Amino acid sequence: MSTKTIISTDKAPAAIGPYSQAVKAGNTVYLSGQIPLIPETMEMIEGGITEQTQQVFRNLSAVAEAAGGSLNDAVKVNISLTDLADFAKVNEVMASVFAEPYPARACVQVAALPRGAQVEIEVILAL
Fold it and tell me: Sorted alphabetically, which InterPro entries does this protein's record hold (predicted)?
């Protein structure tokens, strides 16, 4: 029987709905999607897609650390963008966060994201 552990940290934005920042089940950690909120203020970071993506990865990193891992443990990354024209800029940021071998990834364009964010990213870790 698998047990699940709820992961929470004040170093990442608090959940803005009925969900947990992450859930650990066995050796797998499911990090909820993060948007570019600054944890201390819960305000959107200023700047464009590069700054937003950097903030999202900072948030995800904090949650991964709270789960006892790091983004180096990522096996799957799901990216939602409001404009696929930003794909190359997001790739640049992702390349600065991850080293080879890279995790699996999906990237889709969506009509809108919470609070007007341009990017939301969720990650699955294997610890």
Answer: RidA, RidA_CS, RutC-like_sf, YjgF/YER057c/UK114
CA–CA dist 44, 120 (Å, integer): 12
Whether the model clears a pTM of 0.85, i.e. scores above it, the answer is yes
Question: Would you tell me how many other CB atoms lie within 10 Å of the CB of residue 105?
Answer: 15
What are the domain boundaries of the chain? Answer: 4-126
Superfamily of domain covering 4-126: RutC-like (3.30.1330.40)
d(C-alpha 97, C-alpha 90), whole Å? 11
* Among 110, 123, 103, residue whose Cα is nearest residue 31: 123
Which of 75, 79, 63, 61 minimizes the C-alpha distance to 122? Answer: 79
Residue 1 confidence (pLDDT): 55
